[in-house]
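Hi Q.,

Before the meeting this afternoon, I wanted you to have the coenzyme A prediction in hand. No need to reply - just skim if you have a minute. The sequence and ligand are here:
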Amino acid sequence: MELRELSKENIDAIKSVFLQIFSAEPWNDTWTDEQLRLYILELMGNSNPLLLGLYDDERLTGIALGRIKHWYTGAEYWIDEFGILPEYQKKGTGSDFMRKIKEFLSDRDIKKITLLTDRTFPAFRFYKKNGFYEKDEQVFMVYEGGTHT
Ligand SMILES: CC(C)(COP(=O)(O)OP(=O)(O)OC[C@H]1O[C@@H](n2cnc3c(N)ncnc32)[C@H](O)[C@@H]1OP(=O)(O)O)[C@@H](O)C(=O)NCCC(=O)NCCS
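Predicted structure with the ligand bound:
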């Protein structure tokens, strides 16, 4: 398995892998082709995008889509989307990918990775197993409009 940087040339492969991962349990997301194309282009259009792929020969099997954010404590990799093709899951592939990402970042002097996930989903245990911890003092907040309080 090999880590490679992804670019606009890989958009069709990214879309296909993304759909196979997130249309399945437990996420069951429903994307139209156009919504997904716009979302991925958006991720690529950030000022410091970093999109990484895990390849089994020429087959894209895992994706990490995010960007490098600069902060006073140093740069960090913010991951918006991370996943492994269903048929490669639960075989250590995700952990191998994460290990390769940490090496890639470390070579560029980036030691921190941040992301959001759902506490009730298997990914939560996966991240904990791979050295991530939960920041108790922080909370994810949303305003959805409609209530004028
Ligand atoms: C979460 C995900 C990336 C894990 O990748 P993976 O290749 O399946 O993970 P690994 O085989 O390296 O598993 C490592 C550990 O993660 C945990 N884990 C992974 N999948 C799990 C599952 N379905 N149920 C319970 N624990 C799981 C286990 O603790 C496992 O360790 P173990 O094998 O010693 O029990 C992958 O399942 C995936 O892409 N899921 C769908 C997309 C997703 O949820 N992405 C994260 C969004 S934030």
